[in-house]
Amino acid sequence: MEFDYFGQENSRSNNIRQTLLASGWRPFYRELSWEFLWQLLSNDSQELTQKTLNLTSSLAETLGRNHYAWWANIISLTSEDTRYELEKYWNYITPEPLTPDHRYKDVLSTETPIVQFVSRSSIPIDYLLNRLQEITVFRVLNLLKSPNLITQYYQERDFYLPIEKFNSWERLEVINTVYAYWTKYDVWLQIEPYERGRRQYTLMAKNLTPLINKATCDLAVMLSGYQSRVGKVNTQFSINSFPQDIQNFTDCVQQAVLNQNQLAVVVHGEPGTGKTVWTQAVAKEVLVPLGYVIFILDHDAISNFVPPNYLERICIIINEADNLAQNRASEVAQYSNKTEHILSLLDGTLYQSVIEESEFQVKQRLVILMTCNTTERLDPAMLRKGRVDLMYEFNHKYV
């Protein structure tokens, strides 16, 4: 028994095409554009003339065959070969469906669903940051709502989805690469299918930053082993519940946030004076309303964390900094690189020294809030002028 490979392929292709049509997709028929035709005539007249003569010659040869009746020659104009030649010529003299301008400088991609590799003791930072990027992309899509155009190319045919038939991106039938476009925002979306239902979503625009800022304005990420998660800042204490001197210091912090692109704050005091809950209150009441994405890092995360380059406003909270940025003259600190990493975060020297051309060129605003029981164990380089801008001692037993 012979295996009919081509027959099975044709049957599979027909089934896929029927699936597209049943899902609401429709064949895209090109329309004549006099402006486009004039551009061809002006810029490529020799090629246009040659293709026109070739088509005319082919049609004349079909109609002028002497060994067939005249009516047979006319019927042959509907043959598959003639239709192919006509369609090829029509595709040449009409503009292609709109496609993304891949020169756009702002590009944000995510695979979905994000694969979670996790042990019982920790969750890799990459997974949480990829999850954050996935959430950001889909939040931007929710802000954009329905696009003005959705197209898909399959088997040398262009298809489009009527906007009234669009429900959600998750339910969209994606066989090949899908493009969507929002005229108002000049934003493109590219969707590429992978195996087992996985997809890659890529947003492209001249300026995605305003949409990303709006989409991420209330997000917080906690990087702390198995308890790592993406969510929102939650605190049961408000700034007004702190003593008046701390409220006054908070006012200074807020003013500095408004005036500076980069700010580092250290609060210190004995355990139970409310340092940690104060950072959470500042994050929720001061920074989140200003559009900052909050990152709470534990001892393990601080060594490998690099702020995502697509976020314009970032707040990093580091608790117990005196156990992290220890004096490098001490024997304990010599077995850890956490001090150097915190210093590089304060300076921006580590992650801003090399920037890929394809990445966002966002000028980031960075706020770092650190707590410690005592400043005596901190490395002297931490407290140099230009690294830590504001310091305050918490004296009142708060918790």
Key features of this structure:
399 residues, alpha/beta, seven-stranded mixed sheet, 19% strand, 10 helices, seven-stranded antiparallel sheet, single chain
Protein described:
By secondary structure, this protein is of the alpha/beta class. It has helices at residues 5-22, 34-43, 45-63, 70-76, 80-93, 125-144, 209-215, 244-259, 275-287, 338-347; strands spanning 26-27, 106-112, 149-154, 157-160, 178-182, 187-193, 199-205, 220-223, 229-231, 262-269, 293-297, 313-318, 365-372, 390-394. The protein has a 7-stranded antiparallel beta sheet with strand order 1-4-3-5-6-7-2, covered by helices on one side. A 7-stranded mixed beta sheet has the order 9-8-11-12-13-10-14, with helices on both faces. α3 runs antiparallel to α5 and α6 crosses α7 (209-215). It is elongated, with a radius of gyration of 30 Å.
